[in-house]
Specification:
Radius of gyration: 23 Å
Largest sheet: 6 strands, mixed
Helix content: 25-40%
Distance between the termini: 37 Å
Bound molecules: adenosine-5'-triphosphate
Structural class: alpha+beta
Strand content: 5-15%
Order of helices and strands: EEEEEEHEEEHHEEEEHHHHHHHHHH
Length: 502
């Protein structure tokens, strides 16, 4: 990995940053662990403010400070928007640190660097993974609108996110959604001719042009991921869960049809097209597969899942789509129900523990079948159950609560993740903005295994043909052409409403 020499983290405009010690914060709980660091919920000791501390992983760095962290810091420093996570500060630790197991963290610099973020109660994956949870259509529209607004802001500021997925969409108990994890993000310019890496974006959300080896691309790559998230929210589970790159491409072609020069002019010039073009002709099946989505949702989804990136809808035009302007309208974020905190890391951990408990119970049953038949059921400590009287149909909703935990309620470290069932009482009265599920259109979620990350991991099997080659493929300025129709007629009012730069 590219690095900067240690001690030379010269991030413009960050003069006073890094002057405070991490000792100004009390770590409360680990809430995330990603490729590039661990994330903790923490409290600032003097003010009591709850924040998220992202520790920059240095243990793999042979020569210095990871370039991904520098990029993330630089990019976040220039982005200021309600739907983009706020980087508050950088803090450092002096001297060796120990991990959760009390082991030295093995960092040869004897010093760590942390990014301090505003704390968010949930990530979208963690939230949607709550047992029995189904998002309503107004709720899905509300989250999608915020996602598109944040992304539009990034794109007009010439930043590609390049890792849009549920666990990077953070949500607070005010219902605000923010884009996070800019570790793979980078600046682009419309006249930029250099090659970019195509080994970005987590596999299930990676667009066909990157899978086919394109190295010139633009904001349309993020819009493909948005399309996958949109369909996932409505469908209840990831729509393109490929195990490796060839399978991922195949799943895309089965859903969106096979690419050719007619539906995607220039596709045959993308480096790995000949290697991976489907051997048989496949038809587009989006409308058939998702026939339970409403007409406006389907129209929008088709435009997001356009194989040809130059025809893929932009974030701005997506916000003008009929979908967001027809009943049921997106709900007001503030009216959304509040939930107990949920992050993907914790829900994964809960599931893991639940599986372990189940296996243990099975083993014990096999060893002592009769004795166990008479014992009370094993308590599933790792699982967060809805109250038993709420174990209704799958489309019933997790109980909204009148007052969820606020940041300041996190006075002391909480117990092990998932140690206790949800504390929130059920409510039969869906309050403000909560709509009961609208038939099969309500979203839902099923637990599943997780996709390979999009961070420069080698393609499977060196011989698979995924060798980076020169590209003569150009995306052709998809972004910035705002298109015609509603956007131009109504864009003024709508732009004001979204608060995006004109
Ligand atoms: N500001 C925050 N508030 C609350 N939770 C957060 C915050 N930032 C990150 N998290 C949690 O930590 C997880 C990992 O964070 P992040 O994606 O920034 O790290 P990463 O090392 O880049 O991860 P990955 O490799 O999965 O992309 C997130 O999915 C989220 O659950």
């Amino acid at each position: 990995m590219a690095v900067a020499a240690y001690g030379q983290l010269n991030v413009e405009g960050l003069a006073s940053w890094g002057s405070r010690s991490v000792d100004c914060f009390e770590k409360l709980e680990k809430i995330g662990e990603g490729t590039y660091g661990q994330v903790y919920m923490a409290r600032e000791i003097t003010t009591g403010e709850i924040v998220a501390l992202k520790k920059i992983r240095m243990d793999n760095e042979k020569e210095g400070f990871p370039i991904t962290a520098i990029r993330e810091i630089k990019i976040l420093k220039k982005l200021h928007h309600e739907n983009v996570i706020k980087l508050k500060e950088i803090v450092t630790s002096q001297g060796p640190e120990v991990d959760e197991q009390g082991k030295l963290d093995g960092n040869k610099y004897n010093s760590n660097i942390y990014m301090v973020f505003e704390y968010m109660d949930h990530d979208l994956t963690g939230l949607s993974d709550r047992p029995g949870l189904r998002f309503t259509i107004p709720q899905i529209k509300c989250y999608m609108k915020q996602l598109l607004t944040g992304l539009h802001y990034c794109h007009v500021n010439q930043v590609l996110h390049r890792d849009i997925k549920g666990s990077n969409l953070l949500i607070d108990n005010e219902g605000t959604l923010k884009l996070a994890d800019f570790g793979l993000a980078r600046s682009f310019s419309n006249d930029h001719n250099g090659n970019l890496t195509n080994r970005v974006i987590t596999l299930w959300y990676r667009p066909p042009e990157l899978l086919l080896g394109a190295t010139k691309y633009g904001p349309a790559v993020d819009m493909w991921s948005v399309g996958c998230i949109f369909a996932e929210l409505l469908h209840g589970k990831p729509i393109l869960p490929g195990k490796n790159e060839p399978e991922q491409l195949n799943k895309i072609f089965e859903l969106c049809g096979s690419p050719d020069e007619l539906n995607w002019p220039g596709v045959s010039k993308i480096p790995w097209y000949n290697k991976f073009k489907p051997t048989r002709q496949m038809k587009k099946r989006v409308r058939q597969v998702f026939q339970h989505f409403d007409r406006h949702a389907l129209d929008l989804l088709e435009k997001m899942l356009s194989l040809d990136p130059s025809q893929r809808i932009s974030a701005k035009d997506a916000l003008d789509a009929e979908y967001f302007w027809t009943d049921p309208l997106p709900c007001d974020p503030k009216s959304l129900p509040k939930y107990e905190a949920s992050h993907e890391f914790q829900t994964k951990k809960k599931r893991q523990q639940q599986r372990q408990n189940e296996e243990m119970a099975k083993r014990q049953k096999l060893q002592h079948p009769q004795q166990h038949a008479r014992l009370p059921p094993i308590q599933q400590t790792g699982q967060s159950h809805p109250p038993s009287h709420w174990a209704g149909p799958a489309n019933s909703y997790p109980p909204p609560v009148s007052s969820g935990p606020t940041h300041h309620q996190y006075g002391k470290p909480r117990g092990p993740p998932g140690g206790a069932p949800s504390r929130y009482p059920p409510s039969g009265n869906p309050s403000g903005g909560y709509y009961p599920d609208r038939g099969s259109q309500g979203g839902g979620y099923t637990s599943g295994s997780y996709p390979p990350q999009g961070r420069g991991q080698p393609y499977p099997g060196g011989a698979s043909g995924y060798a980076v080659g020169p590209s003569n493929y150009s995306q052709g300025g998809q972004y910035g052409s705002s298109g015609t129709g509603r956007g131009s007629n109504l864009g003024g009012n709508r732009s004001q409403q979204y608060g995006w730069p004109q």
